[in-house]
Design brief:
Order of helices and strands: HHHEEEEHEEHEEHEEEE
CATH class: Alpha Beta
Strand order of the largest sheet: 4-3-12-7-8
Distance between the termini: 65 Å
CATH topology: Sulfite Oxidase, Chain A, domain 2
Structural class: alpha+beta
CATH superfamily: Oxidoreductase, molybdopterin-binding domain
Radius of gyration: 23 Å
Number of domains: 1
Largest sheet: 5 strands, mixed
Number of helices: 6
Strand content: 25-35%
Number of strands: 12
Helix content: 10-25%
CATH architecture: Alpha-Beta Complex
Length: 228
Amino acid sequence: MYKSRLLAVLALVAVIVGGIVALNIYSNNNPKPDVVSKATMDRYQENEIREYQGANLDPAIGPRDNSIKGIQYVEIDSYRLKITGLVEEQIKLAYEEVLSLDSYERKITLYCVEGWDATVLWKGVLLKDIMDLAGIKPGANTVIFHSVDGYTTSLPLETILSKELILAYDANGLPLPAQLGYPFMVVAEDKLGYKWARWVNEIEVSDDPSYLGYWEQRGYNNDATVLP
């Protein structure tokens, strides 16, 4: 009996000491929890695709909302996507009219300036196809994206055409949630996250390559190319 009690006490001491050592290691080497990886499993939506062609996919919704005015909730029945600027005819498209265009699906990684990234399977339409409906005028070299919360950013027209960039309406097999930019989000491949405009409600074709969007006016690099 005495021996059994002694072994039990020694085991308890070992657990306590081990816990203290682990806590010290965590405190010294990892002063802050890894919010991105810690919350990863919790951020997957029900029925969200987690793997594509043998590669793992990250949750489409990021670790936190970093929009300028909070998550926007768009009333889709009254929503219209405007194509303006240097076009032959300014047009407005309902949500379903955009979805009726040819669709494209691609696995692309978004890199946020906050230090996290997410590889997601995006589905959408070519930005070129949308702009072609309005007719791009000669002299155009820049495309400015406007969002329902007043956010703006821009991309060179040549980048959009050469990379065949898409305007996404699905992520990991599900319609974009409000947190991600429903109804439409620019998938600005190889560009940092602030070029990935969410809740897009206007695409403006421009001849102003020096245009600065919301964060670019605040010192962010207007090129925003992801460095290798």
